[in-house]
Design goal:
Length: 379
């Protein structure tokens, strides 16, 4: 039986067919880029991150490889220069007669000679992490509206926002990790001083429960400030303002932000591990025969060195390739989560829909004024 005769619900419209739907379904939201421009589901955020990684692979992977290559070259040069400068200090520590112990002053001098290289390593790692954390939101700005970009544009954009992003990372690290550092600074000396006493040190009764009790607070703070790098890039704010803005966006949806970030990190870790495993197997396959022959006393030193070199190269390549995904994918997920929260709270979708044809970015929809300013205007 069908209901096709008679007037429809509106003049000039037939009645709907049996099994049909009324009212008719809404048209799908526009999708000029990697995501539809409406509040996103978890699957849409993850799919958008994968699509961004695939469509913008050249600028995204290119900048990340360049950052890692520059960091490796700086560290190799720093270590080489340190070894060359401190060459005279190795002898008093390592070239000793059997049973002879090195002098404490010589060990301290050798240790201090490597302190500048270690400090440089920390600076390079922090700047590299900030560059990658700034790169992914910059890519998402283009990916959301489907606009192509280049390596030079992404490098310039990431470099210009790197100081602010680095500030958000350092401040977040201090806020989240500061209490733990204070706890360790208080408890570890007490544990060392009481190491000769019988039984477990009393300071462990403070350290272990303190760490476990603080972990939920640390997770809450990290999630609260997790969008600060995306804010610093997309809205051009400074570190403190970006962290406040991140807390504002996450407010009221902490569990959702935490869950999506956790899923993104788990997916990145699993795929990164899968990428690294074949290279580790290749390295082990080249290393084990040479080491087995060397343990039996009939191995060729050149073969052993060759196996070690192949193993090191394979592990290095696998680590670099897996790190591209492990570091890049969670940052892409967080950047898309930032876009999603702005579409949910600030109607960013309409602003992007209205200006997508003109090449709009996430920054084209300004942030709402502070609550105090809004209240003043209403009065």
């Amino acid at each position: 039986m069908s209901y096709t005769t008679g007037p429809g619900p509106y003049p000039g419209q037939p009645n709907p067919q049996w099994g049909g739907s009324w009212p008719p379904p809404f048209p799908p939201p526009p999708k000029p880029g990697v995501i539809p421009l409406h509040p996103l589901a978890v699957g849409e955020i993850l799919n958008g991150a994968f699509t961004s990684l695939r469509r913008y692979a050249k600028p995204l992977i290119g900048v990340m490889l360049a950052v890692q290559a520059i960091g490796i070259m700086i560290m190799v040069a720093a270590i080489g220069a340190t070894v060359a400068i401190a060459q005279d200090r190795f002898g008093p520590v390592f070239d000793l007669l059997p049973g002879e112990d090195p002098d404490g002053a010589d060990v301290a001098a050798l240790f201090l000679s490597f302190v500048p290289a270690v400090v440089l390593l920390l600076v390079v790692v922090a700047m590299g992490a900030a560059m990658i954390a700034a790169l992914c939101p910059a890519v998402v700005q283009e990916a959301v509206v489907g606009r192509p970009t280049t390596f030079v544009a992404m490098w310039s954009r990431s470099w210009s926002r790197m100081p602010s992003v680095l500030g958000t990372l350092l401040l977040t690290g201090l806020i989240v990790g500061g209490p733990i550092l204070v706890l360790y600074a208080v408890c570890i000396p007490l544990i060392v001083m009481s190491a000769d006493d019988s039984g477990p040190p009393a300071a462990l009764a403070l350290l272990i429960p303190g760490v476990f009790l603080y972990m939920p607070v640390a997770v809450w703070l990290m999630t609260r400030f997790s969008l600060a790098p995306a804010v610093a890039v997309c809205e051009g704010l400074g570190p403190i303002a970006s962290m406040r803005r991140s807390a504002q966006l996450v407010s009221g949806g902490w569990w959702r932000a935490f869950g999506i970030s956790m899923v993104g990190s788990i997916v990145a870790g699993a795929i990164g591990y899968a990428i690294q495993m074949p290279f580790a197997f290749v390295g082990m396959a080249s290393l084990f025969p040479a080491m087995a022959a060397g343990s039996e006393g009939n191995g060729d030193p050149e073969e052993i060195i060759f196996g070690i070199v192949v193993y090191g190269i394979a592990v290095l390549i696998g680590g670099v390739l897996s790190s591209l995904f492990q570091y890049g994918f969670p940052s892409l997920v967080n950047a898309l989560l930032y876009v999603d929260l702005r579409m949910r709270k600030e109607n960013l979708a309409e602003a992007l829909i209205a200006s997508a044809a003109a090449g709009a970015t996430v920054t084209d929809a300004p942030a709402p004024p502070p609550a105090s300013a809004t209240a003043h205007d209403e009065r």
